[in-house]
Amino acid sequence: MRFIPLIFVLVLAACNSDKDDIKPQELADFSAQGSFKVLWQKKLKSNKDTYGYQLRPAPINDALFTADVDGGVYRYQADNGQTQWQTNVDHVISAGPGVSETVVVVAGPDGQVTALDADSGSQLWQKTVSSEVLSPPVIDRNRVVIRSMDGRIYGLSINNGERQWLFSSEVPNLTLRGTGTPLAKGGRLYAGLDDGDVVALNIDDGRVMWQQNVVNNQGKTEIDRLSDIDGDMGVVATDIYVTSAANQTLAVATESGQLLWRNNHGSSSGVTVSRRFIYLADNDSVLRQIDRSNGELGWQVDDFKYRQLTRPVFYLGDLVVGDLAGYVHVIDAFTGKIQNRKQMGKDAFYGAVVVDGDVMYSYNKDGTLTAFSYTE
Q: Which CATH number fits domain 53-176: 3.40.140.10, 2.40.128.630, 1.10.645.10, 2.60.40.10?
């Protein structure tokens, strides 16, 4: 398994060790609006050694699928949390589940990929890719797309897991731990790479439609040249929106990869896109609103600095974001005003809150899985 160095994190810590403001900002008092309602909650197995793992609850129809690090995979009834089935695969789970109407797929730190029947939980097939998998599998058009940490993207058959195509890219000597989840749209698969490229692939056969370098950091050291695109991307109409840990957010044309505009604020967790704006939590956990048409900055919220915010997501006109202490915060998407907050678990989250209609799902690294809603 390829080892991805964490020198970048260590260097940042050393450079800032004498600064008081590196500590997570304390949560300030505020005037609460609206209320949370916890619909149901589960306690799954947890493990402290899960840095970079992306275990995301996956709702589809009336079911919710999730996985724990110890190999457990679960199907719950979405409205009340009743267990419909549970099983255990023979490996640690570091990414997933990816779901379709028929198949549930999880992946592991040694490249294991396991597909289960969505109705029964029985194993359909198991394959092994070349290295650790940290981004959830993507299922689209009878392909299971797996992205591994060594720069490879696999297109597997949904029926038997046989490899249909393979895309390979170079991984820089120094890179952040993590990979963005590829985005499937209109028969194409878009992926941001560790060298600052964005690639568009035909999801059927893996053919490269275009590949463009959009984050090209210049510098004397490898740290200065970090260009990782590790966060989730967004697509609206003919534009794709990409953000990088290298403090850049960009709009790129989906048909050609042409750069449309660039903004000098970026994120390792990704963006959320509305009809007018882009939202992100930057590398200092400052929440930012960016105009989708030209990249100009709107409001910013500094109340959560260094609290390791998740990617903000939309919920009925508001933004919802999680932090390192297990709090979920609700923000007015138009003004940036803090509306409310509630602690769902005692640890950070595996990823952004998942929204399905008027219900949200959060999953803390202490194993707390929560279904909840919020009303103003």
A: 2.40.128.630
